Amino acid sequence: xxxxxxxxxxxxxxxxxxxxxxxxxxxxxxxxxxxxxxxxxxxxxxxxxxxxxxxxxxxxxxxxxxxxxxxxxxxxxxxxxxxxxxxxxxxxxxxxxxxxxxxxxxxxxxxxxxxxxxxxxxxxxxxxxxxxxxxxxxxxxxxxxxxxxxxxxxxxxxxxxxxxxxxxxxxxxxxxxxxxxxxxxxxxxxxxxxxxxxxxxxxxxxxxxxxxxxxxxxxxxxxxxxxxxxxxxxxxxxxxxxxxxxxxxxxxxxxxxxxxxxxxxxxxxxxxxxxxxxxxxxxxxxxxxxxxxxxxxxxxxxxxxxxxxxx
Amino acid sequence: xxxxxxxxxxxxxxxxxxxxxxxxxxxxxxxxxxxxxxxxxxxxxxxxxxxxxxxxxxxxxxxxxxxxxxxxxxxxxxxxxxxxxxxxxxxxxxxxxxxxxxxxxxxxxxxxxxxxxxxxxxxxxxxxxxxxxxxxxxxxxxxxxxxxxxxxxxxxxxxxxxxxxxxxxxxxxxxxxxxxxxxxxxxxxxxxxxxxxxxxxxxxxxxxxxxxxxxxxxxxxxxxxxxxxxxxxxxxxxxxxxxxxxxxxxxxxxxxxxxxxxxxxxxxxxxxxxxxxxxxxxxxxxxxxxxxxxxxxxxxxxxxxxxxxxxxxxxxxxxxxxxxxxxxxxxxxxxxxxxxxxxxxxxxxxxxxxxxxxxxxxxxxxxxxxxxxxxxxxxxx
Lengths: 311, 381
What we know:
The structure holds 2 protein chains of 2 kinds. Chain A is of the alpha/beta class.
């Protein structure tokens, strides 16, 4: 039953995925902070411009360069065009050739129009960040790379790109590099996958589908399912009856307080049912994450969430 | 002030747009069900590999054609549709792409060459904007068939809500790309047009891609070049429909800071693109009444006769108030930024919406005639 697979933070790469709006970026950040606190040199990668990280840290925009956002924690926003450029620079050592290529309209069109190429070079950059011996000059060595991956649906397609390219290209540099990337993301020892879910009917269904697709179509193993936004379990069924009885006789302030309490109690009950369904429908262990009643999450909230995820 | 029925008065196309995770699919389905319940023939189109719409309408699966939602479901939910019908379809981007190729290919040979090309087979779904474009394509096709009073489009869950607006343009640019045509024929006149060195570029490219891949790519682009005319005309007509009086865009968002900012941004882009903005729907808004007195509440203690329970209840109320305050601020900011009165708030309900009855519950808010009525409904819930 127990496999000797390293825990999430002991991997080299952790891919955080899930449908839109479930809090992937929050979870990626919380994991990153937790890892950094444990002394791991960690980098969080956003795929395409999202600017979520910079919002939380109130820093200058995180771009296509590695920015330190906390002690031991870096962030990068992976831009496909920049990744493509970097890839070509690393491939072609002769300067005249690169200049020729970059100036060529054919190259510009080819990189923009070739289906899947943007995804491929993005994953290529993630791979490069996770290397012991970085390809870029003076590249920092990271213990852990965390990817805030694109939303469900697109998510599977994104991670499938390397294998698709390896199949299509068959031979040549792109084929062998795509093959390397595919082996990298499907190496269960080194690469972990966490799906972020919400305790609601449809997100639970989608998480189950996503886990199956990731396992069967991409060939990665899902290590953890993180169920975000669980309300506090403050009231028992008996409490609920007492609150409902009281509401029938209440007016004014008491009425407002009772209504809010009953509403939270009902939602928590529904969440509990969905959490149970999630555990039943999925194979990976499910970690619940509490809902935080704050207008916007700050650094301390993220640390708290990180502690919940990695006790 | 505004109800969805008012926003859709005289409209035949309703496009629900917004970033992922804000309940766009549910909202689209609710709007469609609500209009069907008001006697219209409505079709809702979604492009979503996660089958959310099928879930929400109790349909086991949705193919690339419309299916009628069982009228019995309406009756079971206590709704008399007065002759209205609800149809739904889930768009299969690859199947639609195949249809488009069949339609626009100048001859059978080109058609077969594209459909058989390995890059097309493996990667056309990953082609920049292809999912979004195919959604538009299908919308246009069904609209042109003129079988429905109203079409509701649930736009793809793109990271950037705007991707789909630019999709038709990007795809035509891709197909028209002159330099691509040069790339396809790297000799002769075309090479001269591209400037000297085209063949050198070609050989450098070979070095980093591999011969096979480059060959397949060249074929892929070459095959597509034959479809330029049909595609361009089609894209022009799609854009015309999007900008016409028959169409309205409804922006869907959540009450948190980020979704609100995205809604503001999206609205600005719609205005810039001269596309018809109808209104904005804010989903899952938290409400908490305002207290007249101070906490702890003596009345609460008298009713409950349990100090511990009273404290837990007050703490819960305080938690909800934080969210309610935030949402109120955010919604006010949204209305100011958009300079619109067409802001429809749907409260965060106590239950999950995943069937027709749930959609009809949401509709009580969507189709209420104003904010006042919505508050009354929420207060009596």
